[in-house]
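Hi V.,

Quick status before I head out on leave. The structure for the redesign project is tokenized and pasted below; the design run finished overnight.
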């Protein structure tokens, strides 16, 4: 079938710009072969492209446009008018308007402008990042559907071996876990998680108020996760705003939450408003990637369905297998130089009549870090 119309124009444009695929290039070569008119058109496009390229070089050179620029434009316009069959009375001439094209900015100034733009763009990207925490695309990939109950892997199994496809154990659950971790590592995908730093009272800790808030928001409590030093280090390495460190160690509790966005919104609203049990709150961001392996380190081999809600506390006793309940046990943390949001600011924001963070049932990952006030 001969090429004509829009398809031919697309191939011509792609050929001149050297953007055709091998298949398109073969198709174009067959169309041009033996077609003198098409060959002439290709040559004309090439010549025009080279002229435009030469003009671009002159535009970027110091001193701006050459004096002959206007004459060249008029000559080209007259030639095009003649080729189009316009009558001689259709004059193309220079007008009385003075040139308004200014010389190109010096390279140093352009570099400064680019640096300024890059800084402004970085600020915009940072703002968009915070706004995109609740976008569904940031959810990790689907896990094997056949695994529904959490189980602990052998503590001696190193993370590197888990991620290696060749190190598949005989146990079915462990094999599926290894396959999932390997898939995530190969995908090299970055996921952002919301981190909520909460200063809670000793009474709130003793009465497990945070756990009850999550449960009442429709986020069921799960068995504790192992609060290993490696898991705590993974969170430290992944945080983007607050960098815990320095000061005397203090008791902390930590929840890994996976739930629908409306449920997360309800729970965080309650924490935000309850300044009696939670005097201070601060939002942060953490990132998960094959390098940080944040969620993998926090889960420590336990499995949960990717569509199920849960709030799993980290607890020291879970590492020893001594506790199966959902009550967290405090573990030593690090005092952080966290600039919490004041009570007055919290009272003015996030009012009860605001819409939830997201409508629908998209799932989100949240890490809640509670630091105990004496």
């Amino acid at each position: 079938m001969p090429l004509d119309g829009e398809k031919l124009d697309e191939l011509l444009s792609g050929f001149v710009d050297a953007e055709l695929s091998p298949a398109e290039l073969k198709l174009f070569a067959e169309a041009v072969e033996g077609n003198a008119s098409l060959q002439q058109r290709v040559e004309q496009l090439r010549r025009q492209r080279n002229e435009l390229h030469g003009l671009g070089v002159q535009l970027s050179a110091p001193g701006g446009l050459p004096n002959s620029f206007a004459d060249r434009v008029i000559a080209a316009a007259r030639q095009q008018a003649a080729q189009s069959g316009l009558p001689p009375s259709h004059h193309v001439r220079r007008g009385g308007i003075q040139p308004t094209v200014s010389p190109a900015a010096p390279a140093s100034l352009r570099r400064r402008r680019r640096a300024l733009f890059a800084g402004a763009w970085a600020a915009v990207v940072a703002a968009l990042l915070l706004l995109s925490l609740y976008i569904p695309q940031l959810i990790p990939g689907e896990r094997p559907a056949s695994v529904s109950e959490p189980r602990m892997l052998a503590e001696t199994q190193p993370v590197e071996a888990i991620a290696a496809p060749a190190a598949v154990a005989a146990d079915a659950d462990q094999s599926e876990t290894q396959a999932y971790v390997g898939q995530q590592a190969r995908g090299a995908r970055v996921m952002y998680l919301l981190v909520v730093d909460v200063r809670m009272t000793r009474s709130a800790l003793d009465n497990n108020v945070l756990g009850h808030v999550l449960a009442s928001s429709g986020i069921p409590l799960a068995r504790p996760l192992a609060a290993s030093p490696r898991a705590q280090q993974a969170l430290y390495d992944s945080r983007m705003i607050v960098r815990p460190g320095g000061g005397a160690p203090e008791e902390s509790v930590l929840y890994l939450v996976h739930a629908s966005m409306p449920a997360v919104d309800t729970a965080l609203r309650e924490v935000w408003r309850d300044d009696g049990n939670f005097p201070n709150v601060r939002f942060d961001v953490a990132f998960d990637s094959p390098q940080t392996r944040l969620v993998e380190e926090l889960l420590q081999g336990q499995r949960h369905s990717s569509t199920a809600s849960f709030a799993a506390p980290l607890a020291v006793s879970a590492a020893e297998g001594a506790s199966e309940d959902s009550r967290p046990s405090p573990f030593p943390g690090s005092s952080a130089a966290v600039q919490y949001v004041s009570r007055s600011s919290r009272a003015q924001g996030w009012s009860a009549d605001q819409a939830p963070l997201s409508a629908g049932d998209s799932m989100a990952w949240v890490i809640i870090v509670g630091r105990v006030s004496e």
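Above is the designed sequence. The chain has two domains: 5-83, 123-373.

G. will cover questions while I'm gone.

Best,
W.
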